[in-house]
Amino acid sequence: MNESDKYRKEVIIFTDGACQGNPGPGGWAAVLKYRNVRKEISGAEPFTTNNRMELTAVIEALRALKEPCDVTICTDSQYVQKGITDWLHKWKKRNWLTTTKSRVKNVDLWKTLDAETRKHRVNWKWIRGHSGISENERCDLLAREAIRKMQEKWDSA
Fold first, then answer.
1. Which of 17, 28, 71, 93 has its CA 20 to 30 A from that of 142?
2. pLDDT along the chain (157 residues), means of 10
3. CA pseudo-torsion sign 76, 80, 84, 85
4. Where are the extended beta strands (E) located within 8-147?
5. Threshold 0.70, pTM exceeds
């Protein structure tokens, strides 16, 4: 560990994505925790997929950090967790093609996530969704609420 490492902030991030239909209206959310500070962020898109929302949640959470941090990302998405830890380096070596030579889905978001993670030291932790972990449950609620708010804006327009 070098001298600057001991001053890095340790942040825990919980993320979730939701979709009504797949594809359909989608929402994402993240809860960021640093010491006793907690920040919640969320958003929605009118037509998307659950996997895109899962990726967006992590990207937006990392973008919310103002400096390089030691980050633990807790996600209930095996797609995100395995994608970033197991599949990404292979996709990059194959020029964003899968083992079956088809284009990697959501390549735009994978490239963005790859760039965002390089700004930090990230530890990936998969957690079981809807298993009573309060921050994960909160992310699920925030993502669904983001969808609802977006749909209310449409209805009133």
1. 71
2. 69 97 96 97 97 98 97 97 97 96 97 97 93 93 97 82
3. positive
4. 9-19, 24-34, 37-48, 69-75, 121-126
5. yes
